[in-house]
Specification:
Layout: H1 2-25, H2 36-45, H3 51-68, E1 79-83, H4 99-106, H5 109-114, H6 119-122, E2 127-131, H7 135-149, H8 156-172, E3 176-181, E4 193-196, E5 207-212, E6 216-217, E7 221-225, E8 228-231, E9 236-244, E10 247-258, E11 261-271, E12 277-279, E13 285-287, H9 289-299, H10 315-327, E14 333-334, E15 339-340, E16 343-344, H11 347-359, H12 362-369, H13 376-398, H14 402-414, E17 427-430
Parallel strand pairs: 3-17, 6-14, 7-15
Antiparallel strand pairs: 1-2, 2-3, 4-17, 5-9, 7-8, 9-10, 10-11, 11-12, 11-13, 15-16
Length: about 425
């Protein structure tokens, strides 16, 4: 199944770059069904293309030509095109390039290990475009930089920074356009395009404003679901908004269970067909657990694992934290109808009963309640971590650091640079 999903993603990415080629080089109309040659080429690449994906490819291309200043229907044969993972059969080979692939190949084993030996951890580029008349010159410049900054006594990070700056300058001039693709939400009126890691230095990425647009919503209701001990929902969700540089970014936050672990995923909020904002279908990204721990530690009073262990024994701390968050008016919050098996309880009673259930053997839960304990202990610890995340947001707001917390979370999830010390490469994201 994973292979099949990967194969479909490959076809979708190739279909995107094919659409860009048709829109720019061949002057194709981007109205649905207006250019049958384009549609036929897309079907050859992606036989399972449904109307939502067809519409997504057209919206992506319209966002790109707007960024390029290209007029729909006109032809510009100045660009070469590339899918990072290989050739695209519906684009002439003479109009394809491998420039960015060659950049990653110049990284030493040590430099690649900085990114876990994963290209996407350096740059999430899926497809890219390069001015044909600049390809030879750019490859020569990359070779000069490689000779000058690789090896010797120089830190391996220096060459990466030099390459990133070179690519950022090329992107600013629109001679090299690395593109990270996210499926356009079908209900979205248009695709959005955002430059990422183009500015050099932290000052240009300073978050000016940040607001929480909806209550921090979790659910402190323990009940039976499919004959298993569970919570009514296992997610912490809310909408936020921040402004950095020239961009205002609304996004949706969800911290949820992933297997037995916790995962924090962010999604852009986009303009829907009927106006207003809706959650994008694709993720903006997820915050790796180590970075999530750093964020909570930096902006909150406690670490993400504070008073969480195999044996939960500090009821006093958790009762106090839960009650303080419920009393706090700094940030709106929603804990649901606090109850256990349908019976309303106080915060103190909730912690007492939840900890008792956590300590019970699975056989005792089955015997007493006729249900499986299942993953209740892991889900309870996730609930407690959600309280620590909520408290971090409260403290950030009280300390005048809410905008930084909101912005940094998004940057980390989307692999956007926060400072010159960060090493992620430049690209534009179309979503």
């Amino acid at each position: 199944m994973a292979q099949a999903v990967g194969q479909q993603k490959d076809k979708q990415e190739k279909a995107s770059i094919c659409t860009f080629y048709y829109a720019v080089a061949k002057g194709a109309s981007l109205e649905p069904d207006a250019d049958q040659d384009l549609k036929a080429s897309l079907r050859k690449i992606y036989p399972l293309m449904d109307p939502s994906w067809y519409g997504a490819f057209l919206k992506q291309a319209r966002a790109l030509i707007g960024y390029l200043g290209h007029s729909e229907g006109s032809r510009d044969n100045s660009y070469a095109y590339a899918w990072y993972d290989g050739p695209t059969e519906e684009i002439p080979r003479s109009d394809q390039t491998d420039l960015i692939n060659g950049v990653w190949d110049t990284f030493t084993t040590t430099q690649q290990r900085i990114f876990g030996s994963q290209k996407d951890s350096w740059n999430t580029v899926d497809v890219y475009m390069v001015k044909k008349n600049q390809i030879t010159k750019m490859k020569q410049q990359i070779k000069i930089m490689e000779d000058e900054f690789q090896g010797g006594d120089l830190s391996p990070e220096i060459y990466i920074g030099v390459i990133n700056t070179f690519m950022a300058n090329a992107l600013a001039a629109k001679t090299l356009i690395p593109i990270s693709l996210k499926k356009v939400t079908p209900s979205a009126a248009r695709a959005t395009l955002k430059e990422t890691n183009l500015d050099v230095g932290p000052d240009k990425l300073t978050v000016k404003e940040g607001t929480i647009e909806s209550p921090l919503k979790t659910n402190f209701e323990i009940f039976t679901k499919s004959k298993k001990l569970n919570f009514n929902t296992n997610s912490l969700t809310f909408n936020v908004n921040f402004t950095a540089g020239k961009y205002t970014t609304p996004y949706y936050w969800e911290t949820r269970m992933s297997g037995n672990n916790q995962k924090t995923e962010l999604k852009d909020r986009v303009v829907g067909k009927r106006g207003g904002l809706t959650n994008a279908q694709a993720q903006a990204g997820s915050i790796p657990v180590p970075l999530m721990k750093q964020l909570v530690h930096e902006f909150g009073r406690y670490g993400l694992d504070h008073n969480i262990s195999a044996n939960l024994n500090n009821k006093t701390f958790w009762k106090g934290l839960l009650k303080s968050l419920m009393r706090d008016k700094t940030i709106p919050k929603d804990f649901g109808a606090m109850s256990i098996f349908g019976t309303p309880v106080t915060p103190d009673e909730f912690i007492d009963r939840a900890f008792e259930l956590d300590a019970m053997k699975a056989t005792d839960v089955q015997s007493l309640y006729g249900i499986s304990k299942d993953k209740f202990s892991a889900k309870l610890r996730q609930k407690l971590r959600q309280l620590l995340i909520m408290d971090a947001f409260v403290q950030a707001k009280k300390n005048g650091k809410l905008a930084d917390f909101i912005g940094q979370s998004y940057y980390r999830a989307a692999k956007m640079n926060l400072s010159q010390a960060d090493l992620s490469g430049p690209f534009v994201k179309i979503s």
